[in-house]
Write a structure and sequence with these properties.
Protein name: Transposase InsO and inactivated derivatives
Order of helices and strands: HHHHHHEEEEHEHEHHHEEEEEEE
Structural class: alpha+beta
Number of helices: 11
Distance between the termini: 72 Å
Radius of gyration: 35 Å
Oligomer: single chain
CATH superfamily of the largest domain: Ribonuclease H-like superfamily/Ribonuclease H
Largest sheet: 6 strands, mixed
GO molecular function: nucleic acid binding
Pfam families: HTH_32 (PF13565), rve_3 (PF13683)
CATH architecture of the largest domain: 2-Layer Sandwich
């Protein structure tokens, strides 16, 4: 009993004591204590029937609630939440409706209240919103128009080994194509994962990454050996602006979910961590409802690309009016009896020179214009960073 409530009960006892002693008339007592005659009769009746306990305020909570959520549905909600601790009320509701569409599941707000009463809600931290990127990245309207890839920040497994999760998603469907634990963020490892993904799911139209290695280089147009291979396959490489991760926002959001569900704490070994990633990928693609997809799963929307990865990449064929030159290991091409430096990133590759006017050529790699060549001074001038 609270202190305030005890004071009220004491006043009621004093009122009844005065009433029993007949110190005043009931009307005067009611006036003295500031209550109505019906209220006075109510407390007199309760005291006579129950004693001092009858002077406590009764709970206004109904003894029964006709619209209360049935216990079996509450148990279903809590069981699913136990299986997926990071899911909120809306995702739980969407998943339950998909599992048992004939059941009248409670509203998301009711599910949220069930979680709150069970101590299963976490305080919502408001994220500082960033101004959306407004540069003309092409709109995504179908699967495989754009794949996004990145490294999720590294961490150490229980045995102290460094783990760098490398991930690939389809931007349209949010389908998680790859989630691979690797120990080195180099071209060889990333190339192998990308090649395996394209063998399984086909070739995308565009790939979006940040400006770090091995996706980008510090030389001409920010090209790297890996991005050259993508251009050779006819894939346009998009790079977000430095320090603007929101330009790859869908992918970054997936990374937050990945961290929450698989790395707190990390597994004991790399192989054990990979098993967690594999299970996360399965659930993320085929079980976890996505609010931006109208609570559908990524797997219900994604289809592989019709562009198959060729077994062997053929050399690019330039138009007949181009002159073709092979770049040597030093990054040079031969021009009559002279050497002209282009870039070491093109070593072993063929470039095309398109004559624009006398002694002036545009330089191309596959379908990408990379700079200009002035014969008068035998100098190559690279284009602006893409």
């Amino acid at each position: 009993m609270s202190w305030k409530e005890s004071r009220v009960v004491d006043q009621r006892l004093q009122f009844l004591s005065s009433y029993q002693k007949e110190e005043m008339s009931l009307t005067d007592l009611c006036h003295e204590y500031g209550i109505s005659r019906p209220t006075a009769y109510k407390w007199i009746k309760r005291y006579n029937e129950v004693g001092p306990e009858g002077l406590l305020d009764l709970s206004r909570r109904p003894r029964s609630c006709s619209h209360a959520t049935p216990e079996e549905l509450v148990n279903e909600v809590l069981a699913l939440r136990k299986r997926f601790p990071s899911w909120g009320a809306r995702k739980l509701k969407a998943r339950l409706e998909r599992m048992n569409p004939n059941v009248a599941w409670p509203a998301a707000s009711t599910i949220g209240e069930i979680l709150r009463r069970s101590g299963l809600t976490n305080p919502v931290r408001k994220r500082r919103r960033t101004t959306p990127y407004s540069q003309p990245f092409s709109e995504v309207t179908a699967p495989n128009q754009l794949w996004c890839m990145d490294f999720k920040g590294w961490f150490r497994t229980g045995d102290g080994q460094r783990c760098d999760p490398f991930t690939i998603t389809d931007s349209y469907s949010r389908y998680l194509i790859r989630c691979q634990a690797i120990t080195r963020m180099d071209t060889a490892h990333v190339r192998a994962i990308c090649e395996a993904a394209m063998r399984e799911f086909g070739v995308p139209e565009r790939i979006r990454t940040d400006n770090g290695a091995p996706f980008s280089g510090t030389g001409i147009l920010g090209l790297s050996r890996l991005s050259l291979e993508w251009h050779r396959l006819g894939i346009l490489h998009e790079r977000i602006q430095p320090g603007k991760p929101q330009q790859n926002g869908r992918h970054e959001r997936m990374h937050r979910t990945l961290k929450q569900d698989t790395t707190n704490p990390s597994a004991k070994t790399i192989s054990a961590q990979q098993k967690r990633f594999d299970e996360f990928r399965r659930v993320y693609n085929h079980e976890r409802p996505h609010e931006a997809l109208n609570h559908e799963t990524p797997g219900s929307l994604y289809v592989p690309s019709t562009r198959l990865l060729p077994r062997y990449t053929k050399a690019h064929t330039y138009p007949s009016h181009f002159q073709t030159r092979r770049v040597n290991d030093a990054g040079d091409i031969s021009w009559h009896k002279s050497r002209v430096f282009i870039s070491e990133v093109f070593r072993g590759e063929d470039i095309g020179l398109e004559k624009i006017e006398q002694d002036f050529y545009k330089v191309h790699f596959c379908n990408l214009e990379v700079g200009e060549f002035d014969v008068s001074d035998l100098r190559f001038r690279p284009g602006l960073r893409a």
